[in-house]
Amino acid sequence: MLDNFNRLVLANLHTLGAGLSVTAYVCFFSFLLAVVLGAIACLVRLYVPFIRIVAIGYIEFCRATPIFVQLLWVNYVWPEVFGFPKSVLGAGIIALALQSSGYLAETFRSGIEGLPKGQREAALAVGIPQFQIMRRIVMPQVLLVMAPSLVNQMTVVIKSSTLVSVIAIPDLMYEALKIVNAWFEPIEILTSTALIYVVAIFLISMLAKRVSDRFRNKYGLAAQA
Amino acid sequence: MWDSLRQSLDLTLFWEYRTILLRGLLQNIYIFFGGALLATALAFAIGAARLSKRGTVRIFSTGYAELFRNTPEYVFLIWVYYVLPIIFSRLLATKINFSPYAAAVLALGVSYSGFLSETVRAGILAVPRTHIEAAMALGMSRWMIMRRIIAPQAIRRMLPEALNQYVSLFKATSLVSLIAVEDLMYQVSMITVHEMRPLPLYTGAALLYCGIIIAAAQCIQHLSDRWRQRGWA
Question: Could you tell me which CATH number the domain at B2-229 has?
Answer without folding.
Answer: 1.10.3720.10
